[in-house]
Every structure is written in structure tokens, then in C-alpha cells.
Amino acid sequence: MSVKNRQLQITQEEEWSIPLEDISSIVLETPQINLSAKTISLMAENQIIMYSCDEKHLPNGIFVPFACHSRELRAVKQQLNSTESFNKRCWQQIIIRKILNQMKVLKFCGKDVMGEYLENVSQKVNSGDTQNKEAIAAKAYFASLFGKKFSRENENIYNTALNYGYAIIRGAIARTIVSYGYIPSIGIHHKSELNNYNLVDDFIEPFRPIVDLWVKQNVKDETEFNKYVRAQLVNLLNMDVKIQGKLQSVNNAINIMIASYTTALNQNDYKKLELPEILELKVHEYE
Predict the structure, then answer these.
(1) What band does 43 get if pLDDT is binned at 50, 70 and 90?
(2) What is the pLDDT of residues 100-119, one digit of tens each?
(3) Is 254 in contact with 172 (CB distance < 8 Å)?
(4) N or C, where is the chain less crowded by C-beta within 10 Å?
(5) Distance from C-alpha of 148 to C-alpha of 144, rounded to nearest angstrom
(6) pLDDT of residue 146
(7) pLDDT tens digit string along 202-228?
(8) Rounded to whole angstroms, what are the CA distances from 257 to 101, 135, 149, 165, 210?
(9) SS3 at position 284
(10) Contact (CB, 8 A) for 130 and 92
């Protein structure tokens, strides 16, 4: 991989070129890839996120652009000065939207009764979700979606695909958070000292059901975790969601969400936070 005339050059048996401005993310799946420091630098300049993968083709590293916001110190100060009450209310909104999105997944899959149960659970999420309705909803949701014997701890094709899809969206959110000048390790709810992406793991929650829906509709016990499956999971970044009353791609929705977080911080008003509503899976059409 190299860059020439602002075009990414990919050379194998054949050669392809893609304008850097058209690239959102790149997944580096094979250790045989060679790329120069200059290429990496140009990736950062164009805010392109790159994922490295392990021997099982699962993302194990994220390269995100650094210091790409003109007023980063101001953004960080606002982030650090956010009140506990504000953060708890933001988390409440995130979990409500996550559970409602899980409800929509179940209804898309013909599981209306359990979907209605989740809708009821969403109405009982309090500030900070101190009663952990998120976990209560998740237990019922995954059992309904993948069967009562399913566990997120098991090693199987379903969890492999879920983890891959989550990692792709997680990286896209990390890139956007950094581009707005925030420190990704300082979260709203997640606060682990061992996690450099606490804020990312806060904001990924309402997007997870998009991955769940694709896996439910496309993965079977005999499915091979091949390049086609992985490409489709990366392509979830281009699927339609609804945010601010309009259809947007997941990529655009992530940007709108983090921009709204900036507005919410500036005005100390958690109600300004915009979160995605998932739809039936369809690639976004740009006008």
C-alpha cells in the first residue's frame, strides 16, 4: 500500500487506486501488507482509521488520527468539567435508546412479545441506570435472539461475527471522538483505568443492535468466517439509521451524535444528545 497524487495505491497481482478523501476506514487483515510511514501519516491527515487484525482476522488494534481538532484544550476542559448529574442523564438516554433498538431488532425478527417486554424495561431506566436495566434487557434479548443456551462468553461463529462488527463500529466512534478533541479514555459511565476507550464504549451502545441484527439474519451454525462475511460487517458503517428525524449512514450518525454531545456539554443539557434509531438493514443512498 502506498500513496500517489492523493490516491491510495493497492498493489497485488493487479493495482487499484482510491482517492484518500473517499476512504473512511481500512482493515489490515494480513501480515504481508507493507506500507510506509509517509502513507500512515497521510492516512492520519485524512482522518482515515486503520484496524490491524490477529491471526483469526479479528481486529486487535486501532490507529486513529491525533490532535486533529483546532480547540482541543477547550473540548477537554468541557469534558473534564461535566457534572456527575449530566453524565448520569446522558447514560440514561444512551441505555434507553440501546434497549429500544434491541426491541426493534426483536420485532424485525418476528419476536414481538419479547420486544414489548424490552419496551417496558426501557421505560424504567433511571438516571445513571443504577438498577442495571441494561443487563436485565440484554439477558432477555440475547436469549430470545440466539436461543436460551447462547452466551456472549462462548466461542462460536455468532460471537466471532458480533465481536468483529462491534470492533469496526468502535473504531469509527473512536476516530470521531478524537476528531472533536475529546480524550477517549474519559468516559460518561465506563471508567476503567485499564480501558483507553471508555467514552467510545459509552457511545457504541445504541449501535450494537445493528450488528446483532445482521448476524441474526446472515449467520448460521455452518457459516464460515470468511472475507465475504467480514466485508459485510465492515459495510454496516454504510447502513441506514434514523437520527435527528433523518436517514443517515451509520458513519454520518456517529458524527452527528458526537457533535450533539458537544452541544450538550456546552449547554449542560443532556436532552441535546442525539442518538440513532436503527432501521431494517439497507445501505444508505447519498443524494
Answers:
(1) confident
(2) 999 999 999 999 999 999 99
(3) yes
(4) C
(5) 7
(6) 95
(7) 999 999 999 999 999 999 999 999 999
(8) 16, 23, 35, 19, 16
(9) coil
(10) no
* Alpha helical stretches, state H, the chain: 37-45, 72-80, 84-108, 112-122, 133-146, 157-179, 198-203, 208-218, 227-234, 250-267
Task: State the pLDDT at residue 32.
Answer: 84
Three-state secondary-structure class, residue 44? helix
Mean pLDDT of all residues in 11-30: 86
The DSSP bridge pattern shows strands 7-11 and 15-19 to be antiparallel
How is residue 145 written as a grid cell?
435472539
Task: Give me the pLDDT at residue 31, please.
Answer: 80
Q: How far is CA 231 from the centre of its chain?
A: 16
**Using 50, 70 and 90 to split pLDDT, how confident is the model at 38?**
confident
Residues in the chain, overall count: 287
Any idea which residue has 424485525 for its cell? 108
Closest CA to 190 of 50, 95, 68, 284: 95
Question: CA-CA distance, 186 to 181, in Å (whole number)?
Answer: 12
Only one residue has cell 472533536, namely 180
Assess whether pLDDT exceeds 70 at residue 193. yes
Spell out the residues 6+ positions from residue 262 whose beta carbon is closer than 8 angstroms to its own. Answer: 75, 78, 180
User: Looking at the DSSP assignment, which residues form a beta bridge with residue 61?
Assistant: 52
CA atoms within 13 A of residue 110's CA, in its CB half-sphere: 3
Please report where in the chains the cell 443532556 appears, as a residue.
270
**Cell 471508555 maps to which residue?**
198
